[in-house]
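Protein 1 of 2
SEQ + STRUCT:
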Amino acid sequence: MTILKLSFILLFSAMNSFLEELLWRGILYKQFIRMSSKRLGILLSSASYGLNTTMFGYSLKISVFYFLLGVLFGFLTVKSKSLLPSIMIHCTITILLILLGWIVMPL
């Protein structure tokens, strides 16, 4: 793997993780807990996050996987009172999924 490809993977993963966590846990989660509770807010934002993947043609199985990841990221955000832990773990998982070929990048 060339340094350019590796750099692209790292940059993509960092930006994707930051933006998705900002949207799903930073903005939507906060709106959901205003309407309900922390627990329901995590479940609603995670369900939205998981179902969003079907828009990109992923299977229901993958959507359930992303729902579970959303629950993990939501739990981390609530416990740490910060998006940083979920961004870091999200970035790590994205890098691994790309390297394993589960997410295909046009490189």
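Protein 2 of 2
SEQ + STRUCT:
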Amino acid sequence: MTLSEAKIAVIIPCYKVTSHILGVIDEIGSEVIKIYAVDDACPDRSGDFIEAHCSDPRVVVVRNAQNQGVGGAVMAGYQAAIADEMDILVKIDGDGQMDPSLLPDFVAPILCGEADYTKGNRFFDLEEIRQMPKVRLFGNAALSFLTKLSSGYWDLFDPTNGYTAIHRDAARHLPFNKISRRYFFETDMLFRLNTLRAVVIDIPMDARYADEVSNLKISKIVGEFLVKHMRNMGKRIFYSYYLRDMSLASLQLPLGLLLVGLGGLFGLSHWISSINSGVPTPAGTVMLSALPVILGTQFILAFVGHDVQAVPKRAFHLQRKSKAAKEPKLK
């Protein structure tokens, strides 16, 4: 399928973006046949504003009765696009930060079967990285590492980037009622896509900044993000290594954790005893504590190496087409 043949739709979450939204819509190219502007119970009545001032026939206003956050808005757009049988669903923010001219770059890997889901990466260009504040770089690196652990996509960066594209077959198999509705949405999407074994790749891009004001407060979401990452990591490991399949890695992780835990507790107890008694711990006892910790660490690293190699490589939507073609048709 070529770019001209594909039915491409753009989903734009609209919440307090009336000063930018018309410009964003004007920049969207002719390769897009539908634009779903999702009014997420916006106090500025974004939906009414678009209907009153936008004459683009491709635009369809979708309204959420209650504010559901960016995740709820995107999923409402996904559902509308799937119902209209669109092929590729591209999500662009309505605040003007994302360049619509990059849309073909996001769509191309999906059309040629290399990916099910593409997302932007603002940290690909080294010159751009040098200009970014060190605190921002550190924060994104920390978030990216947590996302790698929880999602299983070890080759991705910039996890909170909202410029994305997804194939319809991958989108319609997502559990819309379970995906996080607010700021954790982009990260939770990656976890859900991994449960489908969907292929996800980064697309290099530059961010554009104007006069928009972010509602995201890092201090308020860091604890919530950490808890949700740990929850998703536990679910993913259980689904992938114990529920769906079992391998050597399924033994390496629990054995490694057990050895590290036992060795650490044994060493800690003798260290405390040595402090209280004033008698140095014998070298043999130290080694008896260190050996299981070292061995357990090796098991855990072996598991991580296996997990890195297990990143999905065959597009989910191609597997679905192949399976559908093999199924006998009823007459």
